[in-house]
Amino acid sequence: MTRLLKFISIIVFSVSIGSCSSIETKSIKNWLEEGTKENRETVKKNNKTGKTHLKDYLQKSGCVNGSSAKIVDSEDKEILLYDVTCVTKSKEFLLICNDQGCSKY
User: Fold this and answer.
1) Where are the domains of the chain?
2) Burial of 58 by CB count in 10 Å (0-12 exposed, 13-18 middle, 19+ buried)?
3) CA angle 61, 96, 26 (to 5 degrees)
4) The model's pTM
5) Residue 92 bridge partners (DSSP)
6) Which H helix or E strand runs over 104?
7) What residues of the chain score a pLDDT lower than 50?
8) Distances in whole angstroms, Cα of residue 67 to Cα of each of 31, 59, 89
9) What is the largest CA-CA distance in the chain?
10) pLDDT score at 4
11) Contacts of range 62-66, beta carbons closer than 8 Å, 24 or more positions apart
12) Whole-Å CA distances, 37 to 34, 40, 42
């Protein structure tokens, strides 16, 4: 009986250790990168570039006065996704901005 209990406890322990090692480390790695100085500088640069392209796009489409845009979180930090409200045309739409420019989503 004690052998059976030892055997079952070893199996349960092995399964629990095996399941802990299979935890996805990608989210942990991303979390650790968020606090670095390089990541902050990259995000700042991307936001500045995105804002410049966003202003150009809004001027071309006639949505300058009273328009608002907020950044929507996306997994790819190279591409910025904006939720834009154009007051002059009473429209709300999404824009994708990268190094080349902005386009409707």
Assistant:
1) 28-104
2) buried
3) 170
4) 0.55
5) 85
6) strand 102-104
7) none
8) 33, 10, 10
9) 81
10) 78
11) 62/88, 62/89, 63/87, 63/88, 63/89, 63/91, 64/88
12) 8, 5, 9
